[in-house]
Amino acid sequence: MPGCGKCGRRLDIVGNQVGRRDTCPGCDAELHACIHCRHFDPGVAKQCKEPFAEVPMDKESANFCELFQIGDGGQLAGAEREALLSAAEALFKKR
What we know:
This protein is largely without helices or strands and 95 residues long. The protein is 15% helix and 0% strand. The protein is globular, with a radius of gyration of 15 Å. The mean pLDDT is 84.
């Protein structure tokens, strides 16, 4: 299910129907931005996995990228994130 790349909130979006002016109901972030795209990856060149994209400098503002596809949300929501961190700490805890 699509999600906000900023706050992690799940979004009721069907078929990549995201307009340039659409915003997240949780954090009011502009949704047609790099950080919400499924091609966004901070670990690759230009932070985009799509080789032919003209990547904007500002990854958090709305843009006109024709290759945009809404992603699953880059960050985890509060409780979900805390549960994963606790599980990881328990796994690597020294006894």
